[in-house]
Amino acid sequence: MVSSTLFMGVLLSVWTGGLFGLPQVIDWVGLILFYWVVALPGRVGLSYALVSGFTLDVLSASPLGHYAMVMIIICMLGQLICLRFRKMDGISQVALVFMVLGLARFVDVWMASFESVSVTLTPPLLTAFCSALMWPVVMRLLRYFRRYHGLTEW
Amino acid sequence: MGIRAGLLATLLFAVWLADRQSNWLDPVRKAGLDATDFVFDVAAVPGNIWTALSNASRSEDALFNRVDQLERENLVLQAKLQQMVALRAENTRLRALMNSGPRERNDVLATEVIGVAPNPNRQIVAIDHGKADRVYVGQPLIDSDGLLGQVIELADHTAHVLLISDASHSVPVQIIRNSVRAIAEGTGDLNRLRIEYLSTTTDVEVGDELVTSGLGGRFPMGYPVAKVVAVERGDGDRFARVWAEPFAQLSRTRHALLLFPEGALTLEANRYESVIRP
Question: Which CATH code of 2.40.160.40, 3.30.450.40, 1.10.490.10, 2.40.10.340 fits the domain covering B105-278?
């Protein structure tokens, strides 16, 4: 079930990347992974981050390990703050998602600069900002999905 | 969690370095691409449904008009083709008089762009032909207007194509008007290329058309690349800052052509309806 939503995130990344020729501004996989890590930290962890990261590496023609590293960072930060994050109000959650994804995107850009890609199509903070704005929608959809399928920690 | 994640991050860093610096992990990457190439097909489904629905909802009159328009366009292209045949024959005779060999010609294979790689830092698209179709790494791809890019990675039935506007891409070009050679580099902006290594005294003007020069052997000579849109010459600068706009519809094109050396697709000509001989 968790894997299917991450796969949906990969599809959305590919689909929205080609939509109207716009560069990708929403980190769908990062958002979905972050939700599951915060909601089910005992069940969703490094292995999910690793597989989804490697999938993105292969599909985006990046060196293997690039997006896997980015996803591991999102996963680690999610697991560190999950208990406090759940108690926050909506706006604070959006702000924190912005910070987590922003940090992950900076790592992404830093690694891309070592791969001879000196120019990025979208500023890291713009991607983090747009992704954070999508958080309330993604969270509600995934929470409904989790409750509907009765997904629990163990 | 902390120690495990730290160890994993170190391992990933090593994998990343290894894949960046060497070809050791190419078989793993190829296997991964083979296993995931269906993602592009699945992601294209909403677009295909939308196209099918919009086609189905067109009125009969609109379809007749479209066919009429296409027939007229076809007629114009046929007329241009006849002129091209005469020009090609004349060109061959002139080259023979100058003791030059015949100009290289290309077979082309029609292909379709099926997705955009989910990478905000790069400009890479996926096409629906791969190794099984004799596509090779470094192969040029064009659309009806100009050069799109080159193949950088292959699976059995898909390939990744790096667009000419990617910040890491360069293509040798020459100005049609005076044959001055230069390098067109991607800027990361789909509508802008930077033309490098033109001194401030070089004869280059806004509106000049750039085609592939054929130098380097990667791209065949004479395919349209871009049009110069800005030339800046600063006092004391050694090189002019020249900007050009690609002819190809990099962000919109769906149908494209893979260029093969002439004769490379002879055996496949019956297998593919989409093979187009010059």
Answer: 2.40.10.340
